[in-house]
Structure formats: structure tokens, C-alpha cells
Amino acid sequence: MVKGLGRGFESLIPTELIDDEFDPTAAEDKKESQLKELKLSDIVRDEEQPRREFDPAALDALAVSIKEHGVLQPIVVTREEGKYKIVAGERRWRAAKIAGLDKIPAIIRTLDSQNRLELSIIENAQREDLSPLELATAYAKLASQFNLSTEDIAAKVGKSETTIQNYVHLLNLPDFAKQIMAKEKLTEGVMRPLVSRDEATIKKVLPKIVKEGWTARQVERYFAATKKKSSAAAIKRNEYRKQEDALTAKYDVVARIAGRSLIFKCKSQAELNELIKKLS
Prior knowledge:
Elements: H1 26-32, E1 34-39, E2 43-44, H2 56-69, E3 75-80, E4 83-88, H3 90-98, E5 103-108, H4 111-126, H5 132-146, H6 150-157, H7 161-169, H8 175-184, H9 188-191, H10 199-212, H11 216-239, H12 241-251, E6 254-258, E7 261-265, H13 269-279
Helix pairs in contact: 2-3, 4-5, 5-7, 6-7
């Protein structure tokens, strides 16, 4: 579980994961905002922004990504005294400067429109008829575009911090998994154990979940049983490691003990013929 999110929560949410397809406030966002390319020199940080420290290594890594892919998510600014003050996206702004960009995509909001959009997101997040991915997207927007911590979001929508984290983590699922989740109306609890799995595992398990109608408890039990089997296999494998190494050295071929079988793996016919001679 992710700990200590606080005001740095934005850095833990790759902003490109906020997909318009699952964004319940995308129309409101477009209506209330202006999207433009702004000169980096015309943008200033918010001196009241509580976050002061930025990891140099993380900024350099983001700068490399920006050089290759560009800025995937606009920063959010407001006009102030002839400049544009950053509301959200200071990391992207700093990394864009390191990457040598002259301009950056930015959403320009008035304070009124910003407040209206925040209220719209909160209102949507509180609705019971939103899908888990729509809720996850709404929470992520509150974090990335308004610099709200999980504690802030939890208080605004009447949920626990753990609930907010669990929903936002769904955005890290592969696209195909999110599409199936939306189509089959799978719950957050059912999909949560898949978030930390590799794509191959998800592709193997997800069809079973859908076809057999697994509950969240069944998914958890499946992975618990899989982990237990893997641990047992590893223990059994290590039990014969010394014998395998000794046989490999003695016969100069790879030796493996599987169950009650001893297997020699030869690279060529000549190697096999030589092994047969040694064993005769």
C-alpha cells in the first residue's frame, strides 16, 4: 500500500492515466477552460504552494520522457499580474525547462471556473452511479489538477483515504483490463488484486474472473493459493539444487530433478552420445 501520500500525491499519479473515456467531468473541463501553448518564461510557480522540494533525479527522468514524448498532460494555470501562476503541474513545468522546451500546453482557468470544476468533480465523485474507473479518474483529477492530498479528497467526498488510494490505483491497470472492467461492470474489489500483477498474469486470470463470476474474495484466494504453490515449488526446487549442481559438474551437461525424474539436457547429438557413454 502506498504510504505518506500527502501533498506529493500528484507525483504518484501519472497524469496521462486520466483517460477522457472514464472522465465524468471531461465536458465540464472543456467548457470551463482554455487550452493554449504558453511560454515557459511567462509562467511562475505559486509561492504559497506547500510543496517545496522536488527530487532532482525524478525531474531528470521526467525531462527525458518529455524530450521523447512531449508533455502528455497540460499544466493548470490562472492569470495573475501579466503572468500565469501554476495551479497544478509544477513538476511538468520544471522538467520541461530541463528538457529545453520553450512552450508548454496549459489549461488557463479563472478562479471562478476552477472552483466550479472542482465542485463538479466532487459532486460526480459522490454519485453512487459512477463506475469504479470514473470514480478513480475523478479522484485523480482532484489530486493532479488541484493539488489535493488523499486526506483532502477523502474529507470532500466522504470516503476513507484507503478507499481513495484503492480506486486511483485502478488507473495503473493495462488498457485492455480497464476496457474489460468497464464492459463487464467489474467492481474495484475484484480488480484490486490485479493492479500489481504483470500483463501476462492479468490476461490469464481476467477471463476466468469474467466467465466464472468470481467475487473479490475468490480472486484473493486464487492469488493466495498461487503464491503458496510457488513457495512450495521453490522449497522443493532448492532441496535438490546441490544434487543437480553435482550431477551437472560430473557429466558436463545440465541436470534437473523434476518430481521423481532425473533429466539431462544436451545441447547437441554429440553431447548426448558422450553422456550415454559416461552412463554405460
